[in-house]
Amino acid sequence: MTVEIVVYNIESARKAQEGGADRIELCDNPGEGGTTPSFGTIESVRQHVSLDIFVMIRPRGGDFHYDSYEFHAMKRDISTCQKLSVDGVVFGIVNADGTIDKKRCKELIDKARPLKVTCHRAFDMTKDPFQALEDCIEAGFDRILTSGRHIHAVQGVDLIKELIKRADGRIAIMPGSGVNENTVEEIVSKTGAKEIHFSATAFRESAMVYRNEQISGMGSDEGSEFKLRTVDPERVKKIRSLAENAAAL
């Protein structure tokens, strides 16, 4: 079982490694579903973890239909990731009609090689998942991250199982979204997935002693300035164990 942990900062990457992850997906902006992290963050993570690092290539939140300026930014970000010695990149481009943009995806994949390339959950926003599967294979992706077109993967197990069957080893299908201690056994046992993607999120209090009571969080009134996102290594270990046990049944 291959375990990929999505992380949003340097501490989380180190905690994912401590928990025994095989790979991390390194992003920024969890509130927008993940965007490209800063190059300083990528460099620091590369220096301090030895596991595989896949970097999100997504110039903004919102949809996955990009204009020429955004597409150029994605190409530049891939070039920089190659210079920083990461192991893979993660992206997806969708046409306005809900199909995979094979032409531009292939262009980015060709540019990214020899890095590994994952199509992220842009896949779940396509109108025909089986056509999107074939399009991803034709474009050259190595794997697809999918929730089975639902908010959480446990709701999409039937589609994920069918995607794995139809892929027939031509591309890896990796369930993600809402994968945790309560759902991972059902997801793995029902789909036969060999890879899983989850966050194992935890939060810790800020070390700040002085706190401006008038501002609880930049751009937020939820106190997020003093609530720092990280990864719980023990959750990583537990979810992996549950997944491996389910796979062995």
From TrEMBL:
Annotated Gene3D superfamilies: Copper homeostasis (CutC) domain
Keywords of the record: Cytoplasm
CC terms in the record's Gene Ontology section: cytoplasm
Main location per the UniProt record: cytoplasm
GO MF, one annotated term: copper ion binding
Similarity section: Belongs to the CutC family.
Entry protein name: PF03932 family protein CutC
Gene assigned in the entry: cutC
